[in-house]
Amino acid sequence: MLTLITTCRLNDVDPKAWLANILARIADLPASRLHELLPWEWKLLCQAGKLDDRQAA
């Protein structure tokens, strides 16, 4: 868990928001798109507005 939190912090991502979001999305995401859950990819999706209000924390 510490590794996940540290990775988020190194990528300027709020660990609580990221974790809440990926836990809500991971079950419905196909394996080919799991890379979107990585903190640096997630941050880019948030900045691009590609996560709707339900998806972005």
Give descriptors for this structure.
3 helices, 57 residues, mainly alpha, single chain
In short:
The chain has helices at 2-10, 15-25, 39-47.
Fraction in helix: 40-55%
How many alpha or pi helices? 3
Q: What is the distance, rounded to the nearest whole angstrom, between the alpha carbons of the first and last residues?
A: 19 Å
Secondary structural class: mainly alpha
**Count of distinct strands:** 0
Give, in order, the helices and strands. Answer: HHH
- The Cα radius of gyration reads 11 Å
Supply the number of structural domains. Answer: 1
Q: Which descriptor suits the 3D outline?
A: globular
Provide mean pLDDT, rounded.
91
What does this structure look like?
It is a single chain. By secondary structure, this protein is an all-alpha fold. It has one domain. It is 51% helix and 0% strand. It contains 3 helices and no strands. It has helices at residues 2-10, 15-25, 39-47. The longest helix has 11 residues, at 15-25. The protein is globular.
Helices and strands in order, then pairings?
Blueprint: H1 2-10, H2 15-25, H3 39-47
